[in-house]
Amino acid sequence: MDWVQACGILVSRNVFLSGITWEALRKQGLVYGRKVTLHGQSYLLRCPKVANHSEWEQFVTATSDNIEWKGESSFFGQEFIPGDGVFQPDRCSVVTHGGRIVNAREVDKADSNIGFRMVLEPIEPEPVLTRGDIARRISAYCGEFRLDGSLVDFSDYDLVIHLWKNRLMPSDFGPGVVQDGEVCCIDRQLIQHLLLSPA
Questions:
Q1: Are 162 and 135 spatial neighbours (Cβ–Cβ below 8 Å)?
Q2: Residues 27 and 70 both lie in one domain
Q3: How far apart are CA 142 and CA 163, in angstroms?
Q4: Do residues 150 and 117 both lie within one domain?
Q5: For the domain that residue 180 is a member of, what is the CATH number?
Q6: Residue 174 sits in the same domain as residue 95
Q7: Which pLDDT tens digit goes with each residue over 14-47?
Q8: Which residue among 86, 105, 122 closes a domain?
Q9: Does 18 share its domain with 88?
Q10: Lowest-confidence pick of 9-13, 105-109, 139-143
Q11: Which element (helix H / strand E) includes 55?
């Protein structure tokens, strides 16, 4: 495997799984991140973040002296990209020719020219939550989706998060997640990794 390291992440030099759909990647936990361990280090294995001024743009800029990314195969990005500022679940972002982002790919439509460029993001051991963490920013990585917000409450069995408004979120997270407006209660068994912002 040929990896390029910059900006605190590792990115695969090649694109894999050409012909897979964005939705198939999401269902495998490979869009927002699946926890993996390599050589004793934990990582989130995921798609690149490709919104404007994003991780991918910064990565290309940081490595452009050594690597020519143009002409590479196309690959899926982490985000949906709405064309008119409204959530459009029928579209997802795709990067072509190194850095150009297009937004007209259906999430469940395969294209033999589009695949998965792997990102390995190093992650720290999961935090032990305390009452002092209430109201702190938290991200819960659940494989098929990620919840971002502020911590409202927690127990050994679930987390309550006040979700930040995000047009990228699905309307139904499935079993194990109960949502009431912007407040969400999630079964902790669904959570693969928790990220707590610095105090």
A1: no
A2: yes
A3: 15
A4: no
A5: 2.30.30.100
A6: no
A7: 889 999 998 899 889 998 899 999 999 999 999 9
A8: 122
A9: yes
A10: 105-109
A11: helix 55-63
Q: What is the pLDDT of residues 81-128, one digit of tens each?
A: 555 444 455 667 777 766 666 666 778 888 888 899 999 999 988 889
**Domain residues for 173?**
131-196
Same domain, 29 and 80: yes
Q: Phi first, then psi: what are they for 162, rounded to 5°?
A: -85, 110
Give yes or no for residue 198 having a pLDDT over 70: yes
How far apart, in whole angstroms, are the C-alpha atoms of residue 138 and residue 163?
10
Question: How many folded domains does the chain comprise?
Answer: 2
DSSP string, 17-68: STT--HHHHHHTTTTT-EEEEETTEEEEEEPPP-STT-HHHHHHHHHTTT--
The model carries a pTM of 0.80
**Residue of 196, 178, 85 lying closest to 140 (CA atoms):** 196
Structure tokens at 194: 């928790």
CA 57 to chain centre: 16
Block residue for tokens 């989706």: 145
Phi-psi region of 40 (alpha: psi -120 to 50; beta: other; left: phi over 0): left
Residue 78, pLDDT above cutoff 80: no
Domain boundary residue, one of 64, 92, 122: 122
Q: In terms of domains, do 87 and 153 share one?
A: no
